[in-house]
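Figure 2 data, in text form.
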Amino acid sequence: MCHRFARLLALIFACLMPLAPAFAGAWLQQEGQGFSATSLTLRRDLAAVRGLSPVQRIPAEFGYYGEYGLHARWTVGVDLNVSRGRSAHALLFARRPLPHLGRANTAVELALGLNQSSEVWAPMQRVTLSYGRGFDTRWRDRALSGWIALDLGHEWRSKGREQTWKLDATVGLNRPGKLAPLLQVETSKTAGAAVSVAVTPSLRVPLARRFGKDAPELVIGLQHKRAETRSLGVKLAIWHRF
């Protein structure tokens, strides 16, 4: 299984590296500025949706992510996540840039905090390496710009007893004040468990156009996730820059 996951990581890197900013990962916030995202994900067992098995209740997932530019070379923030009745984590993190790779940004992030499993809270740590690059192209004689972000992380949960590798990829278009598409692919592998893959195509909807590029955004996504079970869900988020 580990060999299969390694091949999956290599395949995703091979497909995405030739492409080409984002709100986290390789980009740091400007000093004195910040970004926050509040999300809710509701899922249904796909087999139950098709009527092939009894309904299996999947807990709703709540998330909050916030970051702030403390210094030109330091971004700090908080990452909170709760899956009702199943698990949770609360992390504080700091991100620092690494040397550029051509036109691409790279960064390293260290997060420390707590995770909950079986109603017990224990120390948790996470290290993430990030790659991000903007791109410009044309489609039907229209100029398009966008960005791609790759985040490779390793987590130690429950005092290191549970270790997880994660690779997330995000591709989006820049359309300030307008509807903009977004695609997120999240993969993870915990020792002794199956590979988890979630694919979420989304649409970013500006909520107050008069603020231009700084307008709060509603992000509406449809998520297909494959782990121990396959599920289909709706992900709603509010993005805000401050």
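Caption note: The longest helix spans residues 2-16.
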